[in-house]
């Protein structure tokens, strides 16, 4: 590692393509060194252009995106994640039951996946486009129904299991000829020294020397391996270690609410996304393909433990109840369709006459375990400092009310790879904070706005207080007309959908 | 590049005389002391060993200017220091250089290292703010500056990264390299011409360094009231970015004057763009507004007549 052979692509000595190896061997990192034709035993870690900490959906999306752009595909990337799923290469079989962890991806995410060549793999696996959406609440004051064709769209969105998104991104990265390497471990510590201003001449360009001069970040992993990178990307989720090590503070709070998620089966196929606001929070029924749907049901923590432990039959009854006559009557008519109390909110929306209220298909079977997790909102005050940048949940966690979590993360990945590409075009050191600030300037307002909107929604729908119900219904019908909801929601992600709740 | 449309048809260009017989411009030019009045060569008194041997070209050195740069040489790589404006402008001017040189030399604009194989000289390189990205873009870079301290800083900094440690740094002047008959594919000199003793002679030296089929890129501050207001008042006084007195208004050129003196040095200006600073985003961008900072790309005219 003391000899720099590949000046052409930066300070990386290991130019041989390292095959992605199964995770059964924990010596992967070591053996690759000898594969690279570098016989002397390394004491120093390898050097990379980018180290992505966290190979979740967002981290892999970044790797994919970098690998598919002409100006960034040469970059040497290390991915650090102990998730054994990253070592496997197989598509998820369609006859497996759908996993309860799903994402509702927006048209913007779909086109990002197409751009980076990953959607073709999703296409081969289970996913469910939906072209209809019905949103109503328990007061019976009204409902809203959206059809893709009203917006001149084929679809409103697509529900995909997280594991399908992950395996698609992984297959894509494996199939492109890229110089990536996976470290099957977890980040333990990270150090970045300030740019040296000392005038002492040190002409060696070994990793240690570059590190000492602030040109490389040093990462130490739990398995004892260490590596160096010009840029460290924290894509390590809501409890980001990178964020902690970089000393970025966060702002946020926990809602005293939990979400229960599970897969359910119907007697018929579901093609519509349904969401009903109940006194304690919304319940959503999302099509996931075949006769399956996914349930995301928000409630208070006490309720959630009851609903989680009750018998399957009781739970199914509760779900059917919640999606039908439970808590209140069916709405009589669409508020949008008549000149009722909300007419002042209407704007020039057209609702097709036959879009009358429907009752979602009955749930007949539970098809997965029920999982409960607390809802929280967390936002990093900074996304970047020298040689460090955060993307995805590491930068912002929202509750899954709108299934936006991962879409925001994909937006981050897309923007960051774009910024890196622009930086390379003009010969910038990709770890330079002035470059990374462009990413932050682009994403932070977008993410903060979305979080504010979702937080507002959460608050508006978790209070059961007489007059508020009307206001709430007004807000939810008027969401697309009233600022700031208007500006934020409509322009989000798809920019096409009228209601944010599933976008 | 999004800006290529406006780059190829700069607004001002339409008003420029195509042939050089425009008397008004010439007379105006002649009345500009910094442009055509030969300055006394103060550098002979200097204790730097700049002009040890007789040069066929008059020296471009302007000692008081050099002293200013020498005094703040340590701060070249401080992004928040006196050279902040150059750091901030860097991506923008490099985008201009990338697009013009890729087109001129038929290089692949989608390559991460499009300048591979090009010999580029950065005249007045300072601490290497421009030289380093050029090297990362694949160019074989030579950086020269008249201030020894700058070169020292530039070399130290470039050595920290293997992709930039290939840069050849040298404390010398363009005219000396002309004497040594050095040639380059691209001769780049950004924000230097306003600090030299005789811009017209300086341009001739730049021109002589260009090899057959080569090109040049020059940028400077416009001598207009707006440039004065923006560059001097804002940068030197209000923002305290630059030490007071860094710029002398009288030594700025207008875009027309620069085009003229380049023309007289057998360089045809083909494209020009302005930099505009957006105080809200804090970013510079290329535009057809050349009233403050501007950058010009030129190619050498048919060499046969000058040989
Ligand atoms: C239970 C649950 C249900 C959800 N449901 C939905 C939903 O229905 N719709 C929706 O849009 N969003 C949902 N979300 C949010 C969504 O999952 C996240 O927004 C999304 O997963 C973020 O992706 P990410 O890649 O940023 O982070 P993650 O998916 O959290 O990935 C982080 C990765 O980093 C790795 N890692 C962590 N620490 C380290 C370390 N120290 N070193 C190395 N690697 C590390 C982990 O192994 C993991 O692979 C849900 C979240 C949870 C927890
Ligand atoms: C404003 S700085 C520009 C630095 C660099 N070109 C950039 O744009 O980042 C001007 C530089 O020109 C150098 N300089 C001034 N007169 C010079 C001359 N006659 N020959 C060579 N360099 C000169 C100064 O020392 C200083 O470093």
Automatic annotation (TrEMBL), chain A:
Domain of life: Eukaryota
Enzyme class: oxidoreductase
Pathway named in the protein's UniProt entry: Cofactor biosynthesis; ubiquinone biosynthesis
Localization: Mitochondrion inner membrane
Cellular component, GO, one term: extrinsic component of mitochondrial inner membrane
Catalytic reaction(s) noted: a 4-hydroxy-3-(all-trans-polyprenyl)benzoate + 2 reduced [2Fe-2S]-[ferredoxin] + O2 + 2 H(+) = a 3,4-dihydroxy-5-(all-trans-polyprenyl)benzoate + 2 oxidized [2Fe-2S]-[ferredoxin] + H2O; a 2-methoxy-6-(all-trans-polyprenyl)phenol + 2 reduced [2Fe-2S]-[ferredoxin] + O2 + 2 H(+) = a 2-methoxy-6-(all-trans-polyprenyl)benzene-1,4-diol + 2 oxidized [2Fe-2S]-[ferredoxin] + H2O
Main location as per UniProt: mitochondrion
EC number annotated for this UniProt entry: 1.14.15.45, 1.14.15.46
Keyword annotations of the record: FAD, Flavoprotein, Membrane, Mitochondrion, Mitochondrion inner membrane, Monooxygenase, Oxidoreductase, Ubiquinone, Ubiquinone biosynthesis
Domain FAD-binding: 369-447
Pfam families: FAD_binding_3
Cofactor(s) of this protein: FAD
SUPFAM superfamilies: FAD/NAD(P)-binding domain
Molecular function GO terms recorded: 2-methoxy-6-polyprenolphenol 4-hydroxylase activity; 4-hydroxy-3-all-trans-polyprenylbenzoate oxygenase activity; FAD binding; oxidoreductase activity, acting on paired donors, with incorporation or reduction of molecular oxygen, reduced flavin or flavoprotein as one donor, and incorporation of one atom of oxygen
Keyword Oxidoreductase attached: yes
Family membership: Belongs to the UbiH/COQ6 family.
General function of this protein: FAD-dependent monooxygenase required for two non-consecutive steps during ubiquinone biosynthesis. Required for the C5-ring hydroxylation during ubiquinone biosynthesis by catalyzing the hydroxylation of 4-hydroxy-3-(all-trans-polyprenyl)benzoic acid to 3,4-dihydroxy-5-(all-trans-polyprenyl)benzoic acid. Also acts downstream of coq4, for the C1-hydroxylation during ubiquinone biosynthesis by catalyzing the hydroxylation of 2-methoxy-6-(all-trans-polyprenyl)phenol to 2-methoxy-6-(all-trans-polyprenyl)benzene-1,4-diol.
Subunit structure and binding partners: Component of a multi-subunit COQ enzyme complex.
Protein name in UniProt: Ubiquinone biosynthesis monooxygenase COQ6, mitochondrial
The encoding gene: COQ6
UniProtKB/TrEMBL annotation, chain B:
Top-level taxon of the source organism: Eukaryota
Chief localisation class: mitochondrion
Binding site for S-adenosyl-L-methionine: 93, 124, 145, 190
Catalysis performed (reactions): a 3,4-dihydroxy-5-(all-trans-polyprenyl)benzoate + S-adenosyl-L-methionine = a 4-hydroxy-3-methoxy-5-(all-trans-polyprenyl)benzoate + S-adenosyl-L-homocysteine + H(+); a 3-demethylubiquinone + S-adenosyl-L-methionine = a ubiquinone + S-adenosyl-L-homocysteine; a 3-demethylubiquinol + S-adenosyl-L-methionine = a ubiquinol + S-adenosyl-L-homocysteine + H(+)
SUPFAM superfamilies per record: S-adenosyl-L-methionine-dependent methyltransferases (SSF53335)
Top class in the EC scheme: transferase
Region (Disordered): 31-61
Subcellular location: Mitochondrion inner membrane
Bilayer disposition of the protein: Peripheral membrane protein
Function: O-methyltransferase required for two non-consecutive steps during ubiquinone biosynthesis. Catalyzes the 2 O-methylation of 3,4-dihydroxy-5-(all-trans-polyprenyl)benzoic acid into 4-hydroxy-3-methoxy-5-(all-trans-polyprenyl)benzoic acid. Also catalyzes the last step of ubiquinone biosynthesis by mediating methylation of 3-demethylubiquinone into ubiquinone. Also able to mediate the methylation of 3-demethylubiquinol into ubiquinol.
Protein name: Ubiquinone biosynthesis O-methyltransferase, mitochondrial
Species this protein is from: Corchorus olitorius
Gene this chain is encoded by: COQ3
């Amino acid at each position: 590692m003391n000899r720099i052979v590949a000046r052409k692509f930066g300070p990386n000595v290991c130019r041989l393509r390292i095959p992605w190896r199964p995770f059964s061997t924990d010596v992967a990192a070591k053996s690759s060194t000898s594969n690279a034709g570098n016989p002397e035993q390394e004491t120093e870690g390898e050097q990379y252009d980018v180290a992505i900490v966290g190979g979740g959906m967002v981290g892999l999306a970044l790797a994919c995106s970098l690998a598919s752009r002409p100006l960034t595909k040469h970059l040497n990337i290390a991915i650090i994640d102990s998730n054994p799923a990253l070592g496997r290469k197989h598509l998820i079989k369609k006859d497996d039951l759908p996993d309860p962890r799903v994402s509702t991806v927006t048209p913007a995410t779909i086109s990002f996946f197409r751009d980076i060549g990953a959607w073709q793999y999703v296409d081969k696996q289970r996913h469910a486009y939906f072209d209809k959406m019905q949103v109503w609440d328990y007061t019976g004051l009204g409902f809203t129904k959206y059809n893709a064709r009203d917006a001149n769209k084929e679809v409103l969105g697509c529900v995909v299991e997280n594991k399908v998104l992950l395996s698609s991104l992984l297959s894509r990265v494996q199939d492109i000829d890229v110089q990536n390497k996976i470290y099957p471990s977890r980040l333990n510590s990270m150090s970045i020294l300030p740019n040296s201003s000392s005038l002492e001449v040190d002409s060696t360009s070994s990793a240690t020397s570059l590190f000492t001069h602030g040109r490389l970040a040093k990462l130490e992993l739990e398995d004892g391996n260490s590596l160096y990178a010009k840029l460290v990307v924290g894509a390590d989720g809501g409890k980001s270690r990178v964020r902690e090590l970089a000393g970025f503070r966060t702002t946020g709070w926990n809602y005293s609410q939990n979400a229960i998620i599970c897969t359910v089966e119907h007697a018929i196929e579901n093609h519509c996304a349904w969401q009903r606001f109940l006194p304690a929070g919304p319940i959503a029924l999302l099509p996931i393909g075949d006769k399956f749907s996914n349930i995301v049901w928000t409630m208070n923590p006490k309720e959630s433990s009851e609903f989680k432990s009750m018998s399957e039959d009781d739970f199914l009854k509760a779900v059917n109840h919640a999606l039908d006559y439970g808590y209140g009557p069916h709405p009589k008519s669409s508020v949008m369709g008549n000149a009722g109390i909300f007419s002042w909110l209407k704007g020039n929306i057209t609702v097709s006459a036959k879009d009358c209220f429907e009752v979602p298909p009955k749930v007949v079977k539970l098809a997965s375990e029920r999982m409960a997790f607390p809802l929280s909102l967390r936002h990093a005050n900074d996304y970047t400092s020298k040689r460090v940048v955060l993307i995805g949940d590491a930068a912002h966690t929202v509750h899954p009310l709108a299934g936006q979590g991962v879409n925001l993360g994909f937006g981050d990945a897309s923007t960051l790879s774009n910024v890196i590409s622009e930086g390379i075009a003009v010969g910038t050191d990709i770890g330079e904070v002035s470059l990374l600030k462009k990413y932050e300037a682009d994403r932070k307002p977008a993410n903060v706005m979305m979080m504010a909107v979702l937080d507002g929604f959460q608050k508006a729908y978790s209070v059961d207080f007489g007059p508020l119900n009307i206001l709430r219904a007004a807000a939810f019908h008027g969401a697309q007309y009233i600022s700031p909801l208007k500006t934020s929601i409509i322009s989000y992600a798809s920019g096409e959908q009228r209601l944010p709740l599933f976008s | 590049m999004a800006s290529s449309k406006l780059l190829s048809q700069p607004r001002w260009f339409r008003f420029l005389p195509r042939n050089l017989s425009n008397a008004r411009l010439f007379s105006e030019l002649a009345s500009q002391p910094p442009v055509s009045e030969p300055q006394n060569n103060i550098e002979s008194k200097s204790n730097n060993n700049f002009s040890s041997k007789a040069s066929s070209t008059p020296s471009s050195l302007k000692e008081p200017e050099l002293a200013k740069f020498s005094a703040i040489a340590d701060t070249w790589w401080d992004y928040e220091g006196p050279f902040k404006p150059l750091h901030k402008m860097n991506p923008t001017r490099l985008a201009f250089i990338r697009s013009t040189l890729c087109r001129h030399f038929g290089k692949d604009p989608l390559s991460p290292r499009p300048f591979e194989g090009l010999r580029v000289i950065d005249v007045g390189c300072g601490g290497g703010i421009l030289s380093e990205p050029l090297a990362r873009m694949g160019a074989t870079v030579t950086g020269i500056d008249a201030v020894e301290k700058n070169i020292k800083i530039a070399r130290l900094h470039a050595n920290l990264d293997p992709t930039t440690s290939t840069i050849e740094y040298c404390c010398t002047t363009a005219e000396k390299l002309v004497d040594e008959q050095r040639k380059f594919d691209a001769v780049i000199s950004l924000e230097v011409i306003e600090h030299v003793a005789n811009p017209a002679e300086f341009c001739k030296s730049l021109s002589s360094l260009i090899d057959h089929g080569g090109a040049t890129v020059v940028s400077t501050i416009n001598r207009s009231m707006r440039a004065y207001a923006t560059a001097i008042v804002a940068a030197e006084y209000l923002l305290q970015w630059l030490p007071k007195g860094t710029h002398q208004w009288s030594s700025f050129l207008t875009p027309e004057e620069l085009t003229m003196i380049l023309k007289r040095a057998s360089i045809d200006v083909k494209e020009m763009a302005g930099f505009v600073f957006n105080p809200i985003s804090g970013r510079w961008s290329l535009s057809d507004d050349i009233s403050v900072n501007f950058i010009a790309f030129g190619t050498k005219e048919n060499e046969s007549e000058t040989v």
